[in-house]
Sequence to fold (309 residues):
Amino acid sequence: MGAVQIIIIITIIVLIFGNWVRQGYLRKEKEDANRKITKEQNRIKLLKEKENTDSKIEKAHLLNEQIEAIKKINILSVDDYKKTIINNETSIIEKGGENQLFLFLKIDSFLKGYRGRIVADCEEWGNLIDIDVIIKRIVEDSKRNDFEKMHENLQAGLAELEGKKPIGFDANLERMFKIGRFVKPAIENQIKTLEFYKNMAVSMIVFYQNDRKIRYFEIYEAFEKLGVFDSTWQKNVLNKLDKIEVRLSKISNQLTDLNQNFVSLIESSEKIASELKEVNSNIMTNNMLQSITAYQTWKVNRNTKSLRN
Fold:
């Protein structure tokens, strides 16, 4: 074998070896780069998981603040309506007998029952949620196996598409946060409505005592449509409010949507207040007259806000 051939063979060997070394070096660089990418991806993933957990904890604290605000709601007293009946008991019996007195007392029972439901809702929400337990569950849930969570979230998504209740911790937690946002406004809506009912009930006594029969029967019919005089309001409303999720829905919708008779009374609120002033009854106050007309403005603003939302 000649020297030239040996040189060529050696050159080929060197080139092959050099390429092998170079390929090994490139493989190492690629592996190092992939490790760095994986490490960075894991870092970002952990960061996102921490941010998600922190976000949930922040929402939990907000929910706790909302619950504390519910506990502080001043629920309108309706005891003064019973006092009004007692103060006028003799004249009511003389004018219409005990049946008429009993009719006003049924309205009193309705007002107290309506207020009692509001009180129960506030107390139940105050006792329903333990913020420390929720935060502990959030932290524990963040450490769960990814496959388990992915399967749970998939089930939750399918349940939502099918219109069923949410499944899994995340879905129920978000649902709790969502409900927490509208409980206080919903309860405040109920209180506003309770105040209007009470004012109409007092007005009913005033109109009865002063022979304003048309106005009296307008208010009577509105209460009758609520089922106040046969206690069907208890069957039709309170018995439907067994579960808190159903009750919250009813608070937000049905209970604050007055029947058409009360809607008519709201639309006539300024005239009603004016007629009450004419009567100049000693059981009327300026605050009550202002409250009757203010409810009309509040109802209009509430409906306008709902349309915007």
